[in-house]
Amino acid sequence: MELHTIDDLLGALLAKNPDQPRDEPEIASSIGAQLLHMELPSMPVSLNRRIRDIVSRTSPQRVCEIGSGIGHLSSWLLDLWDRTEPPEHFHLVEEGGKFGVILTRLVRRYDAESWAHVTVGNFEELSAANSSWHAAHATIEESARTESPLLHTPFNLIIVNVGWDGLAKTIRIAMENLEPGGLILTAEPEVPVADVGEIPESGPETIEQSRVSEFNEWVSLINELNESHSIGFVPLFNGTLVGFIQS
Q1: Is residue 162 one of the residues assigned to a domain?
Q2: Position 1 in a domain
């Protein structure tokens, strides 16, 4: 019998799903055009499509997207679950309150209010509050609880969609909310190429210096997690998708 390593399994998980349509869903395409008009960043279509493929293959039941923005990637996932069985819980976490209103409309458009939850706030603060909630309700059976947690943790899948700023820190916090064997997906940050000079040990940094500092944090994170986690890199058009499997 052929034996497969965890790296083999991760590679299979990150592969494309030929059974899924390749065209961008209509709603996702409209949101992408809106992003261009608003001059807002987003994951490229190739990464959104591949994440959708991975979700279709793994069928996670508790999913969290950190940094949902106005719902570009979210709409790819909602389109998938509109055609297939949805998860038990899908949390769209977004720090910007004005985007929360847009995300709520998106969820309603897919008639997904019973299982898709728009959660506005900073993920680190939400995570801490969620841990406190679980500690306070640890002795209460789930059927007897009169309120729900902020986040339905531990998650099977977390998608970190925050761009370069705070990426490594967010992944570390996401790890604390992931079940053993769970998967984290994110886009690899671009390598800074500008000459930024010496980065100050304290005091304000320029945007270019901040990008270098954040990229160094990313490299440190990869080196650290290489010792304890399986990490996969998938080069795609306009970006690289990175997957972490929680040990």
Answers
A1: yes
A2: no
pLDDT digits (tens, 9 = 90+) for 134-155: 999 888 887 777 788 999 999 9
pLDDT bracket for residue 198 (50, 70, 90): low
Question: In this predicted model, what pLDDT tens digit does every residue of 3-41 receive, in sequence order?
Answer: 456 677 788 889 999 999 999 999 999 999 999 999 998
Q: Tell me the DSSP string of the chain.
A: -----HHHHHHHHTS--TTS--SPPHHHHHHHHHHHHHT-----HHHHHHHHHHHHHH--SEEEEE--TTSHHHHHHHHHHHHSPPPSEEEEEES-HHHHHHHHHHHHHTT-TTTEEEEES-HHHHHHHHHHHHHHTTTS-GGG-SS--SS-PSEEEEEE---STTHHHHHHHHHHTEEEEEEEEEEPPPPP-S---PPPSSS---HHHHHHHHHHHHHHHHHHHTTTSEEEEEEETTEEEEEEE--
Domain count, the chain: 1
Q: What is the domain-level CATH number for residue 95? A: 3.40.50.150
Q: Tell me: pLDDT of 1 over 60.
A: no
What domain range is 221 assigned to? 6-245
219 within a domain of the structure (yes/no): yes
